[in-house]
Amino acid sequence: MTTQTPQETTKDVPKEIFLRDYKPPSHSFAKVELAFDLREQGTTVRSIISAVPASGSTGELFLHGDESVKLDGVTVNGSAHERYERGSKGLTLKDLPNEPFELSITTTIEPQENTALEGLYKSSGNFCTQCEAEGFRRITFYQDRPDCMSTFTTRIEADKAKYPVLLSNGNLIDSGELEGGRHFTVWEDPWVKPCYLFALVAGNLGMIEDKFKTMSGKDVTLRIFTEKHNIDKCAHAMTSLIKSMKWDEETFGLEYDLDLFNIVAVDDFNMGAMENKSLNIFNSRLVLATPQSATDADYAAIEGVVAHEYFHNYTGNRVTCRDWFQLSLKEGLTVYRDQEFSADMNSRGVKRIGDVSRLRTAQFAQDAGPMAHPIRPESYIKMDNFYTVTVYEKGAEVVRMYETLLGKDGFRKGMDLYFQRHDGQAVTTEDFFAAMSDANGADLSTFKPWYSQAGTPRVTANGSYDADAKTFTLSLTQVVPKTPGQDTKIPVMCPVAVGLVGPDGKDMELTLDGKSVGTTTVLRFDKAEATYTFTGVEAKPVPSILRNFSAPVRLTTNLTQDDLVFLMANDSDAFNRWEAGQTLLRTLLLDLIKGDGQYKMDAAITTAMRAIIAGAKEPNADKAFIARAMMVPSAGELSDMLDEGTVDPAKIHEARTFVMKTLATELRADLEATMKANSAEKYSNEPADRAARSLKNTCIGYLSYLDDAAIAAMTYERFASADNMTDKIAALNSLSDKECDERIKAFAEFYEEWNKDPLVMNKWLGLQAMSNLPNNIANVKALMEGPAFDIKNPNKVYSLIGGFCASSVNFHAADGSGYEFLADVVIKLDDLNGQVASRMVSAFTRWKKYEPSRSSAMRAQLERIRAKKGLSENVFEIVSKSLEA
Ligand code: PHE
Ligand code: ZN
Question: So what family is this one in (predicted)?
Answer without folding.
Answer: Belongs to the peptidase M1 family.
